[in-house]
Structures are given as C-alpha cells and as structure tokens.
C-alpha cells in the first residue's frame, strides 16, 4: 500500500474502498468484510448512503484492530449548520460503533456549510475526528472556505477519472495543501471506460486491465482513489495496482483523454443545484 500524508500529519492510504450505492445492509456488510479480507483498510461511506451501520458492523466483525482502519463519512446537506451537523456526526459515530472518525467531509457545498465546517473544527479539536475536509467543492468555493475558517481542509473529494482529470483544480488544491481525492475513478463505466482503446493498449504492456490502468494513473498523479465494487474478484483486481509503474509516455497518452468536463453533473448548472438542494430539505 502507498500512503499520502495530509496537511495535519495524518497518514491515509492512497487506495480505499467506497460503498456508494450499496444501500442493502446485509450486502454492504458482506462487501466491506470482503474488502477488508482483500487488504483494504480505508473505507469511505456517507450519511446519505444509508449504510453507516453496515460499515460499522463489518469493521467490528473483521477482528482487525480499529487503529489499522481509516474510516471516512460525510455530512449530508439536510444536516448542515453547526448544531445539526454536530449531532449528525455523533449519530454517525454511534451507527458505526466508533469512538472517533478518521475523516469527515462536507458532502456538498450547499446549505449552511460554514456552520457545518465549524462543528467539524470543534469535533476535530475534541479528538472525535482525526481530519476534516470537503467534497464536491469547486476551486472558487474551496478558496472561499479556506480564507474564512481556522483549519484548512485536509481533503477535497471530487469527480476525478481519465475523462475528467481535474488538473487545474488539483494545482489549486496543492497551493493550499489540500489533498485531492477521487470519487468515481471509473466514471461509473461512462465514455466506454472499460473498453477504451488507449487504456487497453497501455494495459497490454503491463498485463493490466483498463480499470487497473485508470487507478494507477490517478495514483501516480497523487490522487487518492476509492473504487467501489460488490464483486470480490474486482476488489482484488482494483487492489493489485502497486506492482507496476506507468512510464511518462503512457502518462502523457492517458492525459489526452481529459475532456475537462463532468461525466455526471455540474454544480454551476442551476437545475443540478435545484435538485441537490431539494434533497437537503
């Protein structure tokens, strides 16, 4: 495993396991146990995923010492604001049967995320959270949050994959010592991710799949990745990305896939904002 050191000194695996869209409790618990058996120690969940309890049960059943894990959750829009956010994080701890969380992120840059962040700052100071950060913050909102809060976010988790590489956004994050983390490293299969000829040709050199090449590309750029799969054989494949190194030529070729556009949605689209904020009411 490779690691990144966050701006507060916290050590985080560069590869983790995400549980987005595994809402069934039994399935999620089984998947997390499978991931742990493969070797994953960083688990990424969220209040909005509805599976924090399942993640907690799997952690407990695994028998792996708590200190070996890096557990992330996210505060949803409906829990924004100082008091509600603080209470919701305490509830997340109870659901996961944990004394502390390794990382808590603001899930979306909507509602009273300033109040949310200050609640997170206080819980961080109290030792309930080891690191705090944000998710889906575009550079403008990230800079704004940094300029007017005491603690700089350790992480910004944003859509990052070969078709939306976030090169400019990553440079801004580096300027402020914020670690970039990818959600959707496979673009959920969009744009022919798993059949793309460029990724396939690169992969043939190393006897690796398109998915492994995509993960290795991001990892070599210093991007934390949290691929999700419900199939153990895919979890194993996604974990097997530390025994090869992409050449500069291959990195440059993959860089040409960047469309600089989201494969999903834009927070600058009023309809998207109306939809997301509607979910928070």
Automatic annotation (TrEMBL):
Annotated site residue numbers, Lowers pKa of active site Tyr: 74
Domain NADP-dependent oxidoreductase: from-to ranges: 16-257
Name used for this protein in its record: 2,5-didehydrogluconate reductase
Residues at the catalytic site: 49 (proton donor)
Annotated organism of origin: Clostridium cellulovorans (strain ATCC 35296 / DSM 3052 / OCM 3 / 743B)
Pfam families: Aldo_ket_red
UniProt family annotation: Belongs to the aldo/keto reductase family.
Keyword Oxidoreductase: yes
EC number: 1.1.1.274
GO MF assignments: 2,5-didehydrogluconate reductase activity
Keywords: NADP, Oxidoreductase
InterPro entries found in the cross-reference section: AKR, Aldo/ket_reductase_CS, NAD(P)_OxRdtase_dom_sf, NADP_OxRdtase_dom
Binding-site residues, substrate: 107
């Amino acid at each position: 495993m490779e690691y990144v050191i966050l701006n507060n000194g916290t050590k985080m695996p560069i590869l983790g396991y995400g549980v987005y869209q595994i809402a069934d409790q039994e399935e999620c618990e089984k998947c997390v146990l499978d991931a742990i058996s493969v070797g994953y120690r960083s688990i990424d969940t969220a209040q909005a995923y509805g599976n924090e309890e399942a993640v907690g049960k799997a952690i407990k059943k695994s028998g792996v010492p708590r200190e070996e894990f890096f557990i992330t959750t996210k505060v949803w829009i409906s829990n924004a604001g100082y008091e509600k956010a603080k209470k919701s994080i305490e509830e997340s701890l109870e659901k996961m049967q944990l004394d502390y969380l390794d990382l808590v992120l603001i899930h979306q840059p909507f509602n009273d995320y300033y109040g949310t962040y200050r609640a997170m700052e206080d819980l961080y100071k109290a030792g309930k959270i080891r690191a705090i950060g944000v998710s889906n913050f575009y550079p403008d909102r990230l800079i704004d949050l940094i300029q007017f809060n005491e603690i700089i976010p350790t992480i910004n988790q944003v859509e990052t994959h070969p078709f939306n590489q976030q090169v400019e956004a990553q440079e801004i994050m580096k300027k402020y010592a914020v670690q970039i983390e990818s959600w959707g490293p496979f673009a959920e299969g969009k744009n022919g991710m798993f059949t793309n000829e460029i990724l396939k040709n690169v992969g043939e050199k190393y006897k690796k799949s398109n998915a492994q090449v995509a993960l290795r590309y991001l990892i070599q750029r210093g991007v934390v990745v949290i691929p999700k799969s419900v199939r153990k054989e895919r979890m194993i494949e996604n974990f097997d990305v530390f025994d090869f190194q992409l050449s500069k030529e291959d990195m440059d070729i993959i860089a040409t896939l960047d469309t600089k556009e989201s494969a999903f949605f834009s927070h600058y689209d009023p309809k998207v904002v109306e939809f997301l904020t509607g979910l928070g009411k």
